[in-house]
Amino acid sequence: MTFEKRLEARAAEFEAGLGDALDAAASRHAGLPPRLADAMRHAVMSGGKRIRPFLVTETAIALGSDAAAAQPAAIALELVHCYSLVHDDLPAMDNDPLRRGKPTVWKAFDEWTAILAGDALLTLAFEHLGGAACPDLDDKRRLSLVTGLALASGGRGMVGGQCLDLEADKLGQPKVATQEHVQRLQAMKTGALFRFACEAGAVVAGAGTTETTAMARFGAKLGAAFQLADDLLDIEGDAETVGKATAKDAAAGKATLVGLKGLAAARAFLAEIESDALNEISGIGSRADVLRETLRFACARRK
Amino acid sequence: MTFEKRLEARAAEFEAGLGDALDAAASRHAGLPPRLADAMRHAVMSGGKRIRPFLVTETAIALGSDAAAAQPAAIALELVHCYSLVHDDLPAMDNDPLRRGKPTVWKAFDEWTAILAGDALLTLAFEHLGGAACPDLDDKRRLSLVTGLALASGGRGMVGGQCLDLEADKLGQPKVATQEHVQRLQAMKTGALFRFACEAGAVVAGAGTTETTAMARFGAKLGAAFQLADDLLDIEGDAETVGKATAKDAAAGKATLVGLKGLAAARAFLAEIESDALNEISGIGSRADVLRETLRFACARRK
């Protein structure tokens, strides 16, 4: 099976579980207002590569667990990712009317519904980890997932990264963005959830501290590679292949590592990150081959 | 000590702990952007009666535990309450520029900062329950608090109630609000967190299922009494005593139980709720006297 096929197959499998989780929430939550349930579903069941759930699952498998045990953590993480897109798209934030060719939640419903749907999805993620949806894990591992997800997605993680991004975008701060600043912003805004994805897979598999930390580092580096490859694609990509307007970042005056380092140095840095990431999991052997392929996919992608 | 003095003393004690928790989050979270930290502090350290933390603490004490053990749950609950105010005040929601005479977060900062500060506070609440801030409780009780808080504050709880409220306000739905609808809305929007406050106190104290359920029901009824007394105050209160414009609900065309039942029947209903609530904790004896006083305070308040 090619890597792309595996990613697609896992996404299909994952989405069935995700849909069930939303149905279960709606029926268990007899009080969930239909408008809110519809907006939550619109936000969550809108395609995407489901790369974060894929990482949770494949990390858990690489460390001896299975997809079923990883599913609750994968669902919770994807709920957080989806809520963040709903809030990011709002007029007061990125003001995006479309996502993957479909109206965003605030456009399909309205702003207040989008704010509340995001709030409800974030809350549902923690309900999902704490509750009966997570029967394969003991209390210690569930709590570790709750804390890990909160740290990755809160003020020092994803939300903090979004704050730094909007400070640059709306307030022009800092006036001169250094490479360090851009790396920190990206590590928070996108890296933190990738980091948690691999950490969560290790927690699900009951891995020890050393292995869990190594996996978390691998995830963080994979996230950095993913982001840098995206920035390179923005400059190098042919608009037709990429399927979206290219050189968008430059036009928007957005500071990226490619802009700060130059094209050749950015490509070399990507190779360095890839090599560092491989080192993190060098002790795991062939069981982690899917993770290595994921890294290669992230670094080499052309769209 | 009079009840009001006790409430004030607890609020002062609680706020010291709450401030410490925010400081700890800011220092532990080296990456927390200062703008976000400031907005979170603005949202949280802005006065208020701190009635929900008071209920967590007093319920825990009534069942044999103490204020220190109850503090993490009290803080998590207040963080959720404060985030909900930040989002509710947004232009797309209630469009309130002032709260307790001070600019709301979106007014003092801007809309995107307010959205992110709310998101970060909600996430911090779960971090707080899952993590090291909660040393006195075993894993089982921490998880029970995570799940309970998520259920109370999510789509079938507080966020769902806010959705129903805005459906009425913005979309005029339902066209005719029945008493059942108004009661359901209020039970979700404000009742769910009151319910959780007393449930959490019981969980902290390690109470059994019967006692925990009775406490949760007491909390829900206390919340309903609080809301109904507020509605009565809106009609009956003298603007000078209440400190805000009265008959605001009627002017805004908002459906309330007082409007639907009439004044005399609403007063009788409040007495009925008070009596039902007292019944829920009749088995607990004098240890629960502060909770009984809280109920009396909620029902009899004049401002």
Report on the structure:
The structure is a homodimer of 303-residue chains. Chain A is an all-alpha fold. Chain A has a single domain (3-300), classed as Farnesyl Diphosphate Synthase (Orthogonal Bundle). Chain A is 73% helix and 1% strand. In chain A, strands 1-2 form a two-stranded antiparallel ribbon. In chain A, strand 1 and strand 2 form a beta hairpin. The mean pLDDT of chain A is 92. Chains A and B meet through helix 2, helix 6, helix 7 and helix 8 of A and helix 2, helix 6, helix 7 and helix 8 of B.
Q: Quick summary of this structure?
A:
Chain A has 15 helices and two strands.
Task: Name a few traits of the molecule.
about 75% helix; about 0% strand; two-stranded antiparallel sheet; about 300 residues; homodimer; Farnesyl Diphosphate Synthase; mainly alpha; 15 helices
Number of helices of chain A: 15
Q: Residue share in helices of chain A?
A: over 70%
Distance N to C terminus of chain A: 20 Å
Largest interface: pair, residues per side: A-B, 56 and 55 residues
- Provide the CATH superfamily of chain A: Farnesyl Diphosphate Synthase
Q: What's the arrangement of strands in the largest beta sheet of chain A?
A: 1-2
How would you characterize the largest beta sheet of chain A? 2 strands, antiparallel
The CATH class of chain A is Mainly Alpha
Shape of chain A: globular
User: Based on the structure, what is the oligomeric state of the protein chains?
Assistant: homodimer
Give the C-alpha Rg of chain A.
19 Å
Mean pLDDT of chain A: 92
Helix and strand run of chain A = HHHHEEHHHHHHHHHHH
